[in-house]
Amino acid sequence: MRTMDNLLAENGLLALAKTGAAPARVESLIDMDMDEIPELSPGAAGYESRRALRAQYKMKNAQNDKQRVRFCCEDATKIYTMLYKCAEVANKTLAAGMLCRCNMATQEEREPIPGHSFEGHWDGRMAYRLLYNKLFACARSEADKALYLAALEVQEKHHLPDHCPVSMFEEKAYTFQHNIAPHLARPFAPEDAAHYIIKMMPKCLKESGRALRERLIERDQLTDLQIVVSHCVVIVAEDQLTAASATLFNALSFPCLANETLDSLRALTGVAFEYATSGAASGAYGYSGTGGRPAGGAGSRQWCPTCSHAGTHHIGGADRPCFLDPRQPVNVPASVWANQTRVDAMTKGREANARDLGIMAGKLIPPSADAIKRYEEYAKDGKGGGKGGGRRGGGRGGGGRPRRRRGRARRRDHPRVAGQPC
To answer: For 308-318, what is each residue's pLDDT tens digit?
Structure first.
């Protein structure tokens, strides 16, 4: 707080932030006292000149009033911007509260000023007070307690959709750990918080969550929330498929959150709400299964020159999804991960397809260290064959005799020759 006070003082804004005192450039505006220039009665000597002088000073005083309001609003907005940038990095919940309560255009207690609009201006003094109360833990109001309780209830009501992106789980778990749980009037015990995070996974992973809970209890790791979250992330990542449909946030069920903006709802609850589409309730937010992004490409398409129009490759008698499908993360095999050129080509292809859909490409999930080690031993022993160059490998690096082709050679466009992309 001392650092922030020093920064505000350097810019001449500390007095306005703390006490609401007028900034220095406002004090330089001097009004003319109209009582010192009394009106003259009509017909008196100098009546017209006195009347013109009074009109001139009235106009000057009116201009000074407008400038005072403008200077105060501009300096208050500067204070808000500086404080909001700090809060956005350190405490998303505090930043959401500033965003909701410091907009001068929507503050009910602010009296309108004729000829002036507060649109685009922010209350820096209110932002300073919110930050001060947060840092020095002043007595909390019942409304503040109800806000975080409602945020928890929203998380409990809106379950993650089945096969959701891992980023949705990470955001929801992070919000619970850092933005909700520390501010609840009745805090969670470590074991209860761990159970809550495991239960936060999609419903289709209920059995996996039960097995994880038992395993963590056996290892005496249930109270370490970082370990709990990391295990849950792995489970959710392995289960990812396609995006789920959206549900809606009902503001009537949570009146203390009814006036929150979309950004503040996301920051408070960790739920990826979106604006509702046509046909939904007025003012409702949709809950998207794509991590806050629209699901790109209804249905499948051809992702690379060699995959089918359904976006799959026929390998080993089964249809497998193309690696260049950006709508879902890909668990990269160790044999592919070892080829950096191929991984770079996959990344570029997925990003290009994602730009066409207007979405963010899913992550490339690297193989485990054990899988990489097994593959390296496998290739080192000369068992790779084919391209890797085993004992009978006739491809690049093969030290043995080339295999003789039997039967009719297949065409290059044959699906079993085409294989996976890249």
So the answer is: 777 777 776 67
